[in-house]
Amino acid sequence: LAHFTDDADTFLLGPVDDAVAESGAAVRAMVRAVFASPPPQVQFEVEARREGFGQAGDAAWTFHVVEVRALVGPGEEPRVTPYHATQIYRRTAEGWRVVHATWTIPVPNEEYRQMAIDQAVPEGDAIAGRDDPGCENVAATVTAFRDERIMPPLAVLDGSLGVGTAPGEVEPFTEEQYAGIVQAREANVVEMVPGPGGVRVQRVGGFCVTVANLVSDVHPPQGPAFRMPMRQTAVWDAASGRVVHTQWSTVLPSSE
Fold first, then answer.
1. Secondary structure of 33-73 in the HEC alphabet?
2. How far is CA 249 from CA 72, 86, 92, 115, 131, in A?
């Protein structure tokens, strides 16, 4: 908890539908609730592997693949939960502090698809809209991507990282990959509909950080149509308006 700022713009997006917190106090309360004192026999081990990093002056971003192992008792297999974790840092007088965190649980594609077909994926609590100065073009791009049928042009910075909703989906993000998304939408295979809330656009140093609920109506060539809620966190270079990192996230029911 000491790594989070106390600032009013501190933000946390967690893996379940109601895990949305804004302000240092709200983030700390949510983290305390999630990691409340476990029974004495339960111990946790955490292993994190950094896959992405960028810095622009007094701001930086990281992406880690994290495994949390819960050791329940002697002779029992540990319960392993994977996480995808994007964090945005601001340099303060006390050192680097987290001002934004997206922590989500990746789910295999076929499993998540079946959950969506079974209508077991919630759309997620609303994300309050925000529009910080200096990120107007980025805000327009994300809003158009979420709400409009015509896909906006997208510029990707060399070395950009793309993270999908499934385990292992961590690779460079390119304009060619975005073109594939455009093609699927134009072919009416995927149709975006506005998710709950607005588009949150936060300026952190040289970066613009966006978060939104994105809901896709999927019309596969074979099989039933279904609605697939997701969330997207993206980091943009504020000066050029180019994407430097994207993380697509599942939305899991809060009962899990």
1. HHCCCCCCCCEEEEEEEEEEEEEECCEEEEEEEEEEEEECC
2. 28, 11, 29, 14, 22
Band (206; pLDDT cuts 50, 70, 90): very high
The per-residue pLDDT for 150 is: 63
Identify whether the C-beta of residue 229 lies closer than 8 Å to the C-beta of residue 222: no
Query: Nearest CA to 199 among 159, 139, 110?
Result: 139
Structure tokens given for 71: 């050791």
What does the mean pLDDT of the chain come to? 88
Cβ atoms of 54 and 158 closer than 8 Å? no
Predicted pLDDT at 120: 95
Phi/psi class of residue 6: alpha, beta or left (left: φ > 0; alpha: ψ in -120 to 50)?
A: alpha
Q: Give the mean pLDDT of 114-134.
A: 95
Extract the runs of DSSP E, i.e. beta strands, from the chain: 11-13, 20-22, 43-56, 59-71, 79-92, 95-104, 130-131, 156-163, 170-172, 190-194, 200-204, 207-218, 226-237, 242-249
> Residue 182 burial (CB < 10 Å; 0-12/13-18/19+)?
middle
- Which residue do the tokens 């100065």 mark? 133
